[in-house]
């Protein structure tokens, strides 16, 4: 089962929280529902700035332990290597998830056209 290592921050980039989860979208939804769980409302964690998808739970746990020991400059360097502008990656994940859930449906083309009357 796939696991995700992620870094989430507040809007001012004051706090960098490293986490490990099995379902990234559910975890991000949890942060939205519980905005003051870790910090006060001014520092609520709402911006996903980095994540890694890892195939096994053991590898994910090792990577999580390793990344958790990073200093702030090391975490910033890791984030900037893939997300220079610190853009919230949640938006892209939501779009990708919606595309997976609902396949694009094309309207059926009929061989005869109906006349439009006014």
Observed structural traits:
118 residues; alpha+beta; 4 helices; 3 strands; 38% helix
Could you give a short description of this structure?
Helices cover 38% and strands 18% of the residues. The chain contains four helices and three strands, in the order ββαβααα.
Strand content: 15-25%
**Widest sheet: strand ordering:** 2-1-3
Please bin the fraction of helical residues. Answer: 25-40%
Task: Report the order of strands and helices.
Answer: EEHEHHH
Mean pLDDT across the residues is 81
Q: How many helices? A: 4
Give Rg in angstroms.
20 Å
| Uncertain segments | none
The count of DSSP E runs of length 2 or more, i.e. the number of strands, is: 3
Question: Can you summarize the main beta sheet?
Answer: 3 strands, antiparallel
Instruction: State the separation between the terminal residues, measured CA to CA.
Output: 58 Å
Tell me what the structure shows.
This protein has 118 residues and is of the alpha+beta class. The chain contains 4 helices and 3 strands. Helix content is 38%, strand content 18%. The protein is globular, with a radius of gyration of 20 Å. Strands 2-1-3 form a 3-stranded antiparallel β-sheet, sandwiched between helices. It starts with a strand and ends in a 17-residue tail after the last helix. The mean pLDDT is 81.
